[in-house]
Amino acid sequence: MNLVRQRDIAELDLALTGPGTPGGAFMRQFWIAIERSEDLQCGQAKPIRIMSEDYALYRGASGQAQVIAYRCPHRGAQMHLGWVEGDDIRCVYHGWKFDCSGQCNEQPAEEAGFARKVKMRTWPTREHMGLIYAYFGDGEPPQFPPFPAPTDEGLIENPVPPHIPCNYLQSFENSLDEVHVSFVHRTGGSHAGMYDLPEVAAEETEWGVLRTGRRKNGEVRLSLHYLPAVTRVIVPPMAGFDGVGGWKELYLHFVPIDDVHHKWMITYHVKVVGNDAERYLAKRDEYERKVAAAGPASELAREVMAGRLAFSDIQHPDRVRVQDIAVQAGQGLIADRSQEHLGRSDAAIIVWRKMMARELRAIAEGCPPKRWTPAPASVVPTLGF
Ligand code: FES
Ligand SMILES: [Fe+2]
Fold this sequence. Notes:
By secondary structure, this protein is of the alpha+beta class. It folds into two domains: 31-135, Rieske Iron-sulfur Protein, CATH 2.102.10; 155-364, Naphthalene 1,2-dioxygenase Alpha Subunit, Chain A, domain 1 (Alpha-Beta Complex). The protein has helices spanning 11-15, 22-27, 168-175, 181-184, 274-294, 297-305, 319-329, 347-364, and strands at 31-36, 45-50, 53-59, 65-69, 83-85, 88-90, 97-98, 104-106, 122-123, 125-128, 131-135, 155-157, 163-164, 199-204, 208-214, 220-226, 230-235, 248-258, 261-270. Strands 12, 13, 14, 15, 16, 17, 18 and 19 form an eight-stranded antiparallel beta sheet that branches. Strands 2-3-4-9 form a four-stranded antiparallel beta sheet, with no helix packed on it. A four-stranded antiparallel beta sheet has the order 5-6-7-8, with no helix packed on it.
């Protein structure tokens, strides 16, 4: 476990994930989704920034993805500028070559024997359901995958991850907040006019938090919140899909880039097979063309936040996303939680924050954190209306 400086856990600490913070040590206990598998081809290397730290990520000839140090241990060149050779990577500056364990195995201009004394840091890297994960903590990583793939037939898809200009925790808290749907999405889009207000409850489990939304007719919607910040929930199709594909299961990872930017790593499980799957994929192509023509939802959200556009002006195929980004990023770069007035509908947020405050305090005081178990396959989200 990383050593941390602070001992008192303030609201701000919950949101920070940089190295040396209790929140950063908390997050680094878990596998983190860092990139779409399809965005890293064999032979490709790229820089990534996760939780305020830079790394290089490459995929070798065998198909193995690997997170390595951002800078070469010789004189600090960026590693992603180099060449991938087999499963090794060679630095662009003076040609030092490293295997995927980080061991230097070639130094063209140096004496024999020096290379074996040089090793760069690498981090465990794995893939699951179309996403690349890395483990940034010390010691052995927890069990992989962190949660099981769905057993029903269907398509797995990973849309382009949107980048959101605020701290990750306010977006994660939005996903714990079912009541927002009836207001933020009232002006139209995929969620419009859909719900009556649920009675929200939540409980901490051995694998995260289980949230319930009980409707007046007695139906109960179950949503799952995995560690460190992943929401698994059933959601309606985006407005641009015109209902094709039906309600999807969504795994939404809120991944800090730094303390004031994060990205949503998204996996959908679309429950279509055969002809329905063909129809869905054709509709998805059409939807993606519309999204490309409409521009990034985050840009429109900025216009709404600045008052230059109204929600009612927005006709984006991802209208719901414009609405969500505007309220979440509109809370500020890092929301000031000390000024809030939480009510009973914030029950799930309260449970999550209490859990985090307890865990961060344990980390800050050098006590062992809770031993979490991998998410069970038997607990799944339900639609609930
Ligand atoms: S800086 Fe990488 S080989 Fe010199
Ligand atoms: Fe929303």
